[in-house]
From TrEMBL:
InterPro entries from the UniProt entry: AB_hydrolase_3, AB_hydrolase_fold, Carboxylest/Gibb_receptor, Lipase_GDXG_put_SER_AS
Source domain of life: Eukaryota
Record-annotated active site: 164
Example of a GO MF term: hydrolase activity
Species per Swiss-Prot/TrEMBL record: Panicum miliaceum (Proso millet)
Name assigned to this protein: Alpha/beta hydrolase fold-3 domain-containing protein
Alpha/beta hydrolase fold-3 domain location: 81-297
Length: 335
């Protein structure tokens, strides 16, 4: 491990990243790599890694619920969740233990096929690289070129999901899909799942002045310049979505689940975004976790509120009456 000289840090995201003046980058928020295994694990989930774009290195880990797959008879297919991990845009991975465990639980509980996207990280790949990678992943999913997607997934029950920075990425992927509805597109999207999505802005909201979160407003104020290579400030629509962005996201995904933690620094911004989404005609399920902080659901072993939050997400994904069950899939195949 690199051991820098004292005083060598030139930029940092507390608890996540340090950049030293002589070049090295130290990532503090990174759980160990876990290999994939196509043989179902104890949770009944098979998994394998795929390359989406060899030029950029974008890939994904696929998590297939074998119980759900066994039930894919006739026209019945699995819901498909495209998941973007958190980690301040600078850390973590679809292949790390933390997100491997979470995606496994999500696939098992929802009876779903989860595509956990491995996007490029800042500062080596400044924003908007992560958003471009997310779009490439959605386009790849829409192509159904992978046999698991072609044989098991319902293309009319696609969900964009993510937590923290990944929630921001999922939101903006929905925005891009909305803007591109008349173009080649990223396919049909049923819903949006935002778990403690990370948004910020140039002004402080009241909750941010008295936050109990481990996140600090001071660190958030400096964060966006670091991940964009100094090219954008906190008024950037990527981190401070416009009303037009919200309208396009709600056009893409008529249903959204938005999760808020009571102690989260960004909780008020997230509640406001949910209200704006609803104002654009979107059907919003707001889930609030009392006494919890940003990203609490990833801490193991799972606690009662973590399980409760996952239950809400599973119920949202498998909501009866959602498009795609049976008839919609048949119509799509017959075109």
């Amino acid at each position: 491990m690199y051991k820098p000289a004292a005083g060598g840090i030139v930029a940092q995201i507390p608890g996540a990243l340090r950049i030293y003046k002589d070049g090295p980058i130290e990532r503090l928020l990174l759980s160990p790599f876990v290999p994939a295994c196509e043989n179902p694990d104890a949770a009944g989930v098979a998994m394998r890694d795929v390359v989406i774009d060899r030029g950029t290195g974008v890939g994904a880990r696929l998590f297939l619920s074998t119980a759900g797959a066994a039930a894919t008879t006739g026209w019945r297919r699995l819901p498909l969740v495209v998941y973007f991990h958190g980690g301040t845009f600078t850390a973590e991975s679809a292949f790390c233990r933390r997100y491997h465990r979470y995606a496994t639980s999500l696939a098992a509980r929802a009876g779903a096929l989860v595509v956990s996207v491995e996007y490029r990280l800042a500062p080596e790949h400044p924003i908007p690289a992560a958003y471009d990678d997310a779009w490439a992943a959605l386009r790849w999913v829409a192509s159904s070129s992978d046999p698991w997607l072609a044989d098991r997934a319902d293309p009319w029950r696609v969900f964009l999901a993510g937590d923290s920075a990944g929630g921001d990425i999922a939101f903006h992927t929905a925005v891009r899909a909305g803007r591109d509805r008349e173009g080649t597109g990223g396919g049909d999207v049923e819903g949006l799942v935002l778990v403690h999505p990370y948004f910020w802005g140039p002004d402080r909201l009241p909750s941010e002045l008295a936050a109990e979160s481990f996140l600090t407003a001071e660190a958030a104020d400096r964060h966006w310049a670091l991940v964009t290579g100094g090219r954008a400030g906190n008024d950037d629509p990527w981190i401070n979505p416009s009303d037009e962005d919200v309208a396009f996201a709600s056009l893409t995904c008529r249903r959204a689940l938005v999760a808020v933690a009571e102690k989260d620094l960004v909780r008020e911004r997230v509640r406001r975004l949910a209200a704006r989404y609803r104002g654009c005609g979107g059907d919003v399920t707001l889930v609030e976790s009392a006494g919890e902080d940003h990203g609490f659901h990833l801490s193991g072993p799972p606690r009662a509120r973590s399980i409760e939050l996952l239950d809400h997400i599973v119920k949202f994904i498998n909501k009866e009456g959602s498009r795609g069950r049976g008839q919609s899939y048949r119509r799509r195949r017959q075109k």
